[in-house]
Amino acid sequence: MRHKKIGRKLSRTSSHRKSMLRNMSTSLLEYEIIKTTLNKAKELRRFVEPIINSSKKKNLSNYRYVSQVLKSKKIVAKLFNDISKIMEGRKGGYTRIIKCGFRKGDNSKMAYIELVGRNKKRTLKNP
Hints:
Elements: H1 14-31, E1 33-37, H2 38-55, H3 60-70, H4 73-86, E2 95-102, E3 109-115
Antiparallel strand pairs: 1-3, 2-3
């Protein structure tokens, strides 16, 4: 039985899943919108929202935590300087999932995941 087993396994080992979520969160914070499968988007939301929440309070321990998770100094700087200012008034719900149909090859459900309050003028880098 799977009682109290939270999260999706996504048919991956734990190390692969952790690495994939780190890479996807880095891409999401860099481009502010990415296209992925619906299940990955839902799991990414659970992974990236605590990171954004901890970046709102700027202290050394939060900076170390975020840089340990994301592994990219450029993205950590963008998160603490730009994205945290946009999300300052929000208490949660930093991401939005928009369903966008099915993938042509295997008919899996696809979705865009984006940061709420992102710059609308940018074009999609990862359609």
